[in-house]
Amino acid sequence: MNSLLKWGTGLLIYICAMPLFTSCQEDDANFKVYQYPVPQVASISPGSGYVGTKLYLKGKNFGAWKQAVTVLFKGDTATVDSCADSLIVVTVPKTAVSGKVSLKVWTHSVDSVGTYNVMPLPTIVSVTSNNSIGANIAAPGDEVTIIGTSFGTDFSKVSVSFNGTPAVISSLADNKIVVTAPDAYASGSVIVTVNGVSLTGTALLNPNVKGDITIFYLKNYQQPFTHADWLDGEKGSSGGWCRPSSWTINSAMKNQINPGGTLHTGGMDFNKDKVNGNLCMQAGWGNDSQGNVLTNGKMYQTTTLPAGDYKLEFTVPEGGYAGGSNVYFAIAKGDSLPDVGNVSVQSMKYIKNFLPSTTNRFEFTLSEKTQVSIGFVATMLANSWVRISSIKLTLE
Q: Which residues have a Cβ under 8 Å from the Cβ of 84 and sit 6 or more positions away?
């Protein structure tokens, strides 16, 4: 009997010591469950904002265990980031819509503690300059127009920077921002910040700042390369030949037959590197339809460059030429490259039979804005090939 009394007393002490969940007192040998106080919300802030941002509930009787707290945005559950007895911090769920905010702490539910207006996230559609050379070039002082959505009209809540350099906003509408390109900014992306949300727009080139400008004038110029859509029969089980996107290739360059296919393609291969691809010129090994010879094949891009001093570089991871092959990397004025026999006369600059496993380069100068074509032209005898992994254009 004494043992039983000791055991019962110990159990009573243990139950009464449990924190938060229950509290007990002995009243005629009956135990009463602890009742938590009703949570009281004094305010929620802010009253509007974007999905993914923070909402703060201030008040009392929240407790300190966030697992006991549920906050709903018109029925959608928010993530509770933290909870103190007087402050709850939550993240507005991605599916939230405007309406009432509800709260539940333990067993107490408050149907509405306030309302929250979900604002549409801002977007950037385009960034263009009024520079006469091109819309992606902005000299200091040029006017740059940013088209988008949900910018608002409050100047105090919107800012614009050019690769980190602040720009002055001259006009602001909900769908358009006009700014002045700042002095001495580094070429790079235009960043628009609206109510604390940062958006990355198109990169702009400052023609007064020297350095790597490839991204502004060439496309698909380094690994990972992209290709035009595969046609039926082009892609074999182990990869295949294809046409590089954004490059002009003539019919002679389409001298390869894909594994398991009958279509003649070329200019780019995924056989050596299926992930990154290579720009490629090749003749021989029974893969072409022109007597195992690539004759006057061309692969190039046409762009317009402002006046200045430039350097062109390209990297060749591998290659080899049969005797009598003539392979050029060249830049020429106009919208195409010259034929192999005219490269030395019509090109501004060129490199012939460039070496594999090296980075090749040449420099050139333009005295005025000029349309130029940059790329490769080749006549290759059987069992010749060359693969290119990157091209770089630098303003000196």
A: 62, 64
Bridge partners of 187, per DSSP, are none
Q: Is residue 232 part of a domain?
A: no
Kindly state whether residues 257 and 368 are assigned to the same domain. yes
- What residues form DSSP beta bridges with 239? 236
Count the domains in the chain: 3
Is the pLDDT confidence value at 50 over 50? yes
- Which tokens is 207 given? 């023609």
> Is the predicted pLDDT of residue 23 greater than 60, yes or no?
no
Domain containing 146 equals 123-206
pTM: 0.62
Q: What is the DSSP string of 26-93?
A: -BTTB--PPPPPPPEEEEEE-SEE-TTSEEEEEEE---S-GGGEEEEETTEEPEEEEEETTEEEEEPP
- Last residue in a domain, options 188, 206, 224: 206
Residue 42 has pLDDT above 90, yes or no: yes
Tell me the per-residue pLDDT of 333-347, one tens digit each, with 9 for 90 and over.
Answer: 999 999 999 999 999
Comparing C-alpha atoms, which of 47, 14, 43, 44 is closest to residue 31? 14
- Tokens (6 digits) for 102: 């509800």
| DSSP secondary structure code for residue 156 in this structure | G
Pair of tokens at residue 390: 């990157």
Question: How high does pLDDT run on average in the chain?
Answer: 87
275 and 158 in a single domain? The answer is no
Residues in the chain: 396
Between CA 282 and CA 368 the distance in angstroms is 36
What whole-number distance in Å separates Cα of residue 243 and Cα of residue 184?
A: 39
Q: How many other C-beta atoms can be found within 10 angstroms of the C-beta atom of residue 59?
A: 18
For CA atoms 123, 126, 128, 134, the dihedral sign is: positive
